Amino acid sequence: MSLVVVGTVAFDAIETPFGKTDKILGGAATFIGLAAGKLNVDAKIVSVIGGDFPEEYLDLLNENGVDTEGIKIIPEGKTFFWAGRYHNDMNTRDTLATELNVLADFDPVLPESYKSADFLMLGNLTPQIQKRVIGQFTQRPRLIVMDTMNYWMNTAWDDLLEVIGMVDVLTINDEEARQLSGEYSLIRAARKIIAMGPEYLVIKKGEHGALLFNRDSVFFAPALPLEEVFDPTGAGDTFAGGFIGYLAKTGDISFENMKRAIIYGSAMASFTVEKFGTEGLQAIRNGELNDRIRQFTDLVQFDIELVD
Amino acid sequence: MSLVVVGTVAFDAIETPFGKTDKILGGAATFIGLAAGKLNVDAKIVSVIGGDFPEEYLDLLNENGVDTEGIKIIPEGKTFFWAGRYHNDMNTRDTLATELNVLADFDPVLPESYKSADFLMLGNLTPQIQKRVIGQFTQRPRLIVMDTMNYWMNTAWDDLLEVIGMVDVLTINDEEARQLSGEYSLIRAARKIIAMGPEYLVIKKGEHGALLFNRDSVFFAPALPLEEVFDPTGAGDTFAGGFIGYLAKTGDISFENMKRAIIYGSAMASFTVEKFGTEGLQAIRNGELNDRIRQFTDLVQFDIELVD
Q: Which of A123, B11, B224, B294 is the most exposed place for a label (fewest CB within 10 A)?
């Protein structure tokens, strides 16, 4: 099934305890699109870049099944740029630079062929832009997944709540879930957030895994314990891309299938963190993804005998 | 099978955002013993208390199947006392008081009937005391599980390593695993710690669950997401008591059965954190433990179809 992804296509410059990069390919829509592509789902990206964005990066996206027709190029502009430095624990980071550039005036315009897609992934952007994208569909997508962050809770509360009320699945991290709901317990937070509109909530806890909620049920998937975490950049977006990619591939949006989608997203993200930027995702070879899915099964499966 | 537990029997005074207690029943061996008792495994406690320890607390332990013959009473001494205040996140706390009292000169002496027990749980105490307990067994227990903490890594490194080399299962938290191994990755940390002697390692991550390692495999169990965490005191000891209690009850010390023991320990700990001190553990009614075990199964079970 067809998938539209709106989000950033960007340059990242990353420092970790293991090394640093110059400006490399980054951005939420990039990771989401590449992750979906690894599941043979063609993602149609809606984004904006400047004249400084290398042709080879667009080629890379296209070669991985990503449709870039919806990426507007502003020749005289510069591409969105983020620079960050991770601390030794790899869980915290300092932002060294955020240059919005062409993103500051981003007004998304969907190509005709995008407007009837079945699945829509709203990467983290201003709620106003997310809403404008939804408004351009000729019929509502079967499933809308929305990512957001605490920044919009602090600066665009009303707009944010409006868009949250329009989507089917919200993906946020644990701190954001607490801020959005005003509840510390994630069980209570989930109940309040689902009452705001989305039928499903995914709470991302980074190295501590992810929770999937609907009104009645909760599912938990750990992150795969890894030998080495090299660069966490893009892990959350890869997870989201694997999640919606799996749903779009299977065409099944039941809770049971969303559990599987969570496992696929987690497995995909485990590749991303093993290398800089999109390298880990690009390097996945045939069979490796299935190997990780099996590792997940081994990691959590148990066969219990109830004792009195 | 018979189980000996060495550890503190103590008074705790606890402050949480939800309330505070006077001196109530606490201590590692108390929680471990009560948790094992809930699985109908009689724990034989080795500990020391002062003349100020109420008869009713000893009765409470006995009524829950805990053998207190090995608890030495020093009539002129005072019982070990700990006071702490939890922060709003319930994950961090300040210690307000630690009065060792009779624990300062604790020299464990095992009653004859304890010396041939099949299972031994070494609660967190000085490594020297843990070693002296092992030395009093007439034959080595089938399984020795040891808890410890970072304090002994800082103050009794050589003794600690010696005892770690004598046990089958080590249970520590993630930060302690990192400190003990010098490795940030828990996968690498586990490999190094298992090379120090224990065949199995349990890494406790509090609200983020627990990992079980042997040389070849890893198993992960989440903590049950709860509506409310009221008082985390004793959660780790309850987990340990449920873990070794399940193993002692079933008499099966395979990796597969240790997975189940982890689930039982986690389920048991979920009761402890819902009330102050030992109240949650005492309040477990028939069937409630099995209900939580089923919740664990629902929380993590998935049925994956591999896609290419």
A: B294
